[in-house]
Design a protein that fits this description.
With about 180 residues, the protein is α+β, with helices and mostly antiparallel strands. It is built from three helices and eight strands; from the N terminus they run αββββββββαα. It has a domain of about 80 residues: Immunoglobulin-like (Sandwich), CATH 2.60.40.
Length: about 180
């Protein structure tokens, strides 16, 4: 192929790409596209039992009620904690996510409400603890209980190691770890 033809072809292709980039944004305005696909909220296809363990900063929470609420804070289901801190609640079929699992420890406890956000219908075990509460609150701050917001919230709660730590968390000369080589 001739260099002139190749140069002309490259220039033409570049012009088309530049023009299409500018045209892509034209007309979008503030209105959503009528071609936008609306994603249906997932829901439990059949009645499902959710279960897990409830702990606070002091350990297992042995008394209290677990309430399952929807996004409008309407109670969908509820259940009591057993003496080992476990709960089981049955979610009705066709219940859409997100839902919240909220635990208000017994009245004699001065503990704050704990919660966990449920955004996946394929999972049935949800431990409720201070970390799940922080993640749920952070996701709400980020715009709501969505898959993306839950991941961002969870990632923001994890302490990342310094880049000079080894995988075991030891800093420094590995030959001196545990008093030298054994």
């Amino acid at each position: 192929m001739n260099i002139r033809v190749l140069s002309s072809l490259i220039r033409s292709t570049s012009m088309v790409l530049i023009a299409s980039t500018f045209l892509y944004g034209c007309g979008s305005g503030d209105k959503p596209s009528s071609a936008a696909i609306k994603k249906a909220m997932p829901s439990f296809k059949k009645a499902t039992t959710l279960k897990g363990l409830v702990t606070d900063n002091k350990g297992v929470v042995k008394a209290g009620e677990v309430k399952v609420t929807d996004a409008k804070n309407k109670v969908i289901a509820s259940g009591q904690l057993d003496t080992d801190g476990h709960y089981k609640v049955k979610i009705p079929a066709k219940t859409s996510v997100p839902i919240l699992l909220k635990v208000q420890p017994s009245e004699d406890s001065k503990a704050d409400e704990l919660m966990a956000a449920v955004v996946y219908t394929s999972m049935t075990k949800f431990d409720i603890n201070p970390l799940s509460t922080k993640i749920a609150k952070k996701a709400k701050e980020l715009g709501g209980y969505t898959h993306a917001n839950m991941i961002l919230a969870a990632e923001s709660m994890v302490d990342m190691p310094d880049k000079n730590k080894t995988t075991s968390g030891f800093r420094g000369d590995p030959t001196k770890q545990y008093g030298g080589w054994h």
